[in-house]
């Protein structure tokens, strides 16, 4: 395999079981030229396929296992030709997935390799909302990246997000605390995933991926958590103009205004935010 580039993403170890794995708050290395960087994570949601990930011909991740999400790393802003190969078959083989990803300076994004609703491997880029939160609040985002029909997401038995389709997401600001969540087929009480406890800490943004395949009976949840979004007297709340700066868990400042709505996969934005929703 080729050696990793200076801006290579470090692979996180281990695969996700068929239950919720709540990740620890993620951290990113500080950068002296952060204004020219983007914070990028990668989530592997294609069951049964260990892969190598390449960007512009350079290996980013080797032996990347399903159910794994990397810590965010600072990458140069720009356009990346992402190719994902079955482990050991790149870079000269035929990629299982290939997409062009455009990442602007200041963006905080996760690139998800996952199955489409009809079971085909694909790449989707999501913008991670790391805007400040009011005291006592947490942000919950659910991303449907599974080979499955539309779903409802419930907390404590009550629907929070309804009719969520692959590859969309919904977001709500909720009270911090522990929430028992499950995923059901849209409009029914038929549980597809869960229930599982979500520990939504104050000042965190918690992203839950519903991934896997309903037909293969391996649907699962994976959580990615960002911390450091507690409000300060000078901060603009999450419902503000969007011009406020946001911080990741290492204290590095990122320009959220530049990130909102800016990450694209082949020119198609894949992000949807529901503002002001409460649980």
From TrEMBL:
One Pfam family linked to the record: DUF4397
Residues of the signal peptide: 1-28
Location of the DUF4397 domain: 38-154
InterPro entries: DUF4397
Keyword terms: Signal
Protein name: DUF4397 domain-containing protein
Species whose genome carries this gene: Streptomyces lavendulocolor
Lineage: Bacteria, Bacillati, Actinomycetota, Actinomycetes, Kitasatosporales
